[in-house]
């Protein structure tokens, strides 16, 4: 485990045993930021079950072209980032999720997680670019990604979670943010 900074934040790769923690952080973040884009019935009901299934599968396949990095403050899980290497021929690696627990936001953990994602792309991907999708309504996340050097290049409609259209409210959109060369923003 690597410990950095005065606030004793530590980072490590996730394992299958972290699936429950990751799923709960992911569900809480969706409940907070995806309300209005995802249906209340889904966010107040099946979202935890859905995220548990997704993360159990992803973390069981760890090392299979992706990495999930956990952040801790002391013994408390503070957030995570999940990166899929070489996901898109044009845009590179996909930062599929980056979530920081509400009580640990605005402490540099998100910035450190995205920098660690960039380093993972350099260490394990075949290219130097990465991208992510952020809900159009999540302006706070957009400001964060812009501050981290990301650039919005495209707007697209959101796919429903688990392919279930009833989990969406209306027709929400997402924005693609890109880092064409992570070395330009995160060093090498």
UniProtKB/TrEMBL annotation:
Gene Ontology MF, one: acyltransferase activity, transferring groups other than amino-acyl groups
Pfam families listed in its UniProt record: Acetyltransf_1 (PF00583)
Protein name from the UniProt record: N-acetyltransferase
Domain N-acetyltransferase, residue spans: 9-171
Cross-referenced Gene3D superfamilies: 3.40.630.30
Parts forming coiled coils: none
InterPro entries: Acyl_CoA_acyltransferase (IPR016181), Bact_Acetyltransf (IPR050832), GNAT_dom (IPR000182)
Keyword annotations: Acyltransferase, Transferase
PROSITE patterns recorded: GNAT
């Amino acid at each position: 485990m690597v410990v950095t900074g005065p606030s004793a934040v530590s980072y490590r790769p996730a394992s299958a045993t972290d699936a429950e923690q990751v799923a709960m952080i992911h569900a809480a973040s969706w409940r907070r930021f995806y309300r209005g884009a995802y249906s209340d019935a889904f966010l107040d009901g099946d979202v935890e079950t859905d995220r548990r299934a997704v993360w159990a599968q992803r973390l069981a396949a760890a090392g299979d072209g992706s990495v999930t990095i956990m952040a801790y403050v002391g013994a408390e899980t503070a957030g995570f980032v999940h990166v899929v290497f070489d996901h898109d021929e044009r845009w590179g690696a996909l930062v599929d999720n980056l979530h920081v627990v509400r009580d640990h936001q605005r402490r540099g953990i998100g910035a450190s997680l995205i920098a660690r994602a960039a380093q993972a792309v350099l260490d394990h991907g075949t290219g130097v670019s990465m991208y992510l999708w952020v809900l159009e309504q999540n302006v706070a996340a957009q400001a964060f990604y812009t501050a981290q050097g990301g650039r919005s290049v495209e707007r697209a409609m959101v796919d429903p979670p688990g392919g279930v259209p009833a989990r969406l409210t209306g027709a929400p959109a997402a924005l693609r943010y890109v880092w064409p060369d992570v070395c330009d923003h995160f060093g090498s």
